[in-house]
Amino acid sequence: MTEKTTEAETLSEDDDYPGLGVASYTLALLFVAYIFSFMDRQILSLLVGPIREEFGISDFEYSLLQGVAFSLLYTFAGIPLGRLADRYSRRLIAAGSVMFWSIATMACGMSQNFTQLFIGRMGVGTGEAGLTPSAYSLILDSFRPKHVGYAMSIYKVAIHIGGGLALVVGGFLYDFYDSMDAIIIPVIGNIAPWQATIISVGAPGVFLALLMLTMKEPDRKGTVSNTDGTVSPSLPMSTILRFTWARRRVYISMFLGSSLLSMSWYGSAAWYPELLFRNYGLSKSEAGLAFGTITMLGGSTGIMAAAWLGERLKKLGYIDSNVRTILITTTIAMPLSIMAPLAGSAEMTLLILAPAIFVGSGYMGLIAVSFVIITPNQMRGQMTAMYIFITNIIGMAIGGSLLAAFTDFVFKDDNMLHYSLASVNAMFYPLAVLLLWYCLGGYKAAVIEAESGDWSMDQAPQK
Hints:
Blueprint (H helix, E strand, L loop, with lengths): L1 E3 L15 H23 L5 H8 L3 H29 L2 H19 L5 H15 L2 H12 L2 H34 L4 E3 L3 E3 L1 H10 L1 H8 L25 H10 L1 H31 L5 H32 L5 H19 L6 H15 L1 H11 L4 H34 L6 H36 L1 E3 L7
Antiparallel strand pairs: 1-4, 2-3
């Protein structure tokens, strides 16, 4: 069965897009929301020592708070929230998600034991699951094709801005609260510096959620019509699964490849600050400032540089330019990522880590564009949710915990954290490169199919 898009050409420019100013306003709010999401999820990576001491837990148990507790509901809640984003107001879903996770973050700061903090982290994950499926769909329907690659990359830059600010701002906040004789919040009473830090990071999101209600909901574009010419607001899950399975070479290899890169990224983001503190004697603020600055500057410029390279390759005739660029940048990042934790000093580690993050971050913006542009509109939220499900089950839930497991169970020494970081990168970067190379074979045909608007639900597009 073949179904066509409601537009003459799915990716053509037309007058249905909002003005660039309106689109940029939407992007700006989504960008800030994504920054807040990564600040709220990454702040724990700076607070390993105080929380371990407070609750008497090991590195591996702490990794469960960082990864499993957050990703458990983040991954599973994403699928129903993605389906809602394909059918109902994406603006309301995004704003409600920000409000929910911000309140949950503040609740984490009020936790009195490991269980309460674990449950609070699950709440943060549940809230954050609703943002990205709505955001991807809003961005693609707000920006014309010639702008959407850069717009999506700008959105993904927030990963590094948020993760970096969590360390830089979090480090200064923690040192500030730690210098106080006592921290007292009305009704709650005395709280520890780590609790005050988490609450301070979560609170601004409540106000942002209200501001996001002012975003414009753009018309949906790139929809598939039924055989009788009508357009359904959503498609049956069976149809989506048939569509995905017919293109399994593209979607599975792309999602698994990015998941392996996520394992390395989340593991590094979770444990590099502790490496600088534990192995090299930097203070919390020094470790946060050093790693956070490299993350913000190197990661942000790396994402935008990859977007530029993708556009250049496209102009040179490479229809598969998005995935091809990811393959190139990942291959270059592989040796640098393995070498950085083994450098032997804080200075050398950071010196090698800077280009590793710059090049290795390239996949983050382009991966989103890569699969969204080859997916019909009524599937984009759910396909994004599937992507989040796979990358976070593998990347976040397993990545940080696997790295901690190397430290606790393989090397059995807290001071061998640098070997754990190198081992994880050496395992997963080569596998990611192979999967991305395999993806190229079917991706070109999928792009051609999307540009023609002639979607087949049951068969893979022909090369």
